[in-house]
Amino acid sequence: MAKQTLILGSQRAELLKNWRNGVILAELDEKHDPRPVLKLFNPCGAQTWLLTEIVDGDDEDTILFGLCDLGFGTPELGYVSLAELKSVRFMGGALGIERDIHFCATKTLAEYTAEARRLGRIEVC
After folding, report:
1. Nearest to 100 by CA among 38, 51, 12, 47
2. Are 53 and 78 in contact (CB under 8 A)?
């Protein structure tokens, strides 16, 4: 089975653009609340990540920012290492973290975060 690419080139560009816009808006003391660009998930469990920005790193050590739900009922905003996500394996190595190819954000990150905190999980239809 071929390994799925977790971030497409167009998504990487959008994630970087969001990070740059956030830096500029922070300097202007303005609100930065983009829509998530990417949804990653554990196909065997409850973990979900709605990601808005690439914060730092190259292809091997990319750090992403977004709403992280590790399945414990307390979703939170935070940072995640792409290398760590890529290293996670399930079912004897047959499965790993996957990209939701059908995900299209309908809310801003703040709206998803408020809803996830209220529900105790990220819920994306």
Report:
1. 38
2. no
Amino acid letter, residue 72: F
Tokens representing 31 are 């609100």
Query: Which tokens in the block code for residue 91?
Result: 């079912």
Query: What is the C-alpha separation between 98 and 3, in angstroms, rounded?
Result: 9
Does residue 77 sit within a domain?
A: yes
* Structural domains of the chain, count: 1
The DSSP bridge partners found for residue 50 are 39, 67
pLDDT tens digits for range 9-59? 999 999 999 999 988 888 888 888 999 999 999 999 999 999 999 986 666
CA distances from residue 93 to 28, 44, 87 in whole angstroms, order as listed: 46, 12, 10
Q: Which residues constitute the domain of residue 41?
A: 9-119
